[in-house]
Amino acid sequence: MRSTGAIVLLVLVLLVGFAGCAGCGTFNSLRTQDEQVTGAWSEVENQYQRRADLVQQVVSTVQGQADFESETLQNVIEARSRATSIQISADDLDDPEALAQYQAAQSALGSSLGRLLAVSESYPTLQANEGFLRLQDQIEGNENRIATARRDYNQAATDLNARIRTFPANIVAGFAGVDRREQFEAAAGTEQAPEITFD
Question: Of 154, 158, 143, whose CA–CA distance to 185 is shortest?
């Protein structure tokens, strides 16, 4: 009888040890995925900041054009101001309202910038300005990098969210302080990229 009790105790110790190791592994992998989401978010912020910097340079260049449409320019300045005033930290990525506000401000800036670039085509002196043309190229490249950064963030968030929904990660996530992350959604009317031509 003693040997049976010892075997049962040994089996229980092994099961608890196995569960502890599995829990530690799950904890560590959840933390790793959480850091990947944070890193992907940092790249999104980095690209949006780059766009804000480029917009400031475009505004400075366009302001030199005395007869440029002031309303269009003012809309871009205000949209940039709103977009840069809304900051969201990686800790707030589980707040759908915060991400929606951030996304709306960035979308408004992108739309205003698109209108400014479209209107600028009517100004031959701007179109002949080498600096302005370089800025247009940089903006185009930056918009592509923003799309890539958002896609990478969404993928990292999707992977983490899917992991949190599985057992035993759903239990360990609470202990690890890892929450579901919100994702970027396409704004209405953005199913197709705007066509911007630089003649």
Answer: 154
pLDDT in tens, 55-91: 999 888 888 775 777 888 888 989 999 999 998 888 8
Cα separation, 109 vs 52, in Å, equals 9
Look at the pTM and tell me if it is higher than 0.85: no
Phi, psi for 167 (deg, rounded to 5):
-90, 140
Per-residue tokens: 91: 């800790």
Closest CA to 156 of 44, 51, 46: 44
Cβ-contact 142, 117 below 8 angstroms: no
- Domains of the chain and CATH, by start: 1-176 (1.20.1440.20)
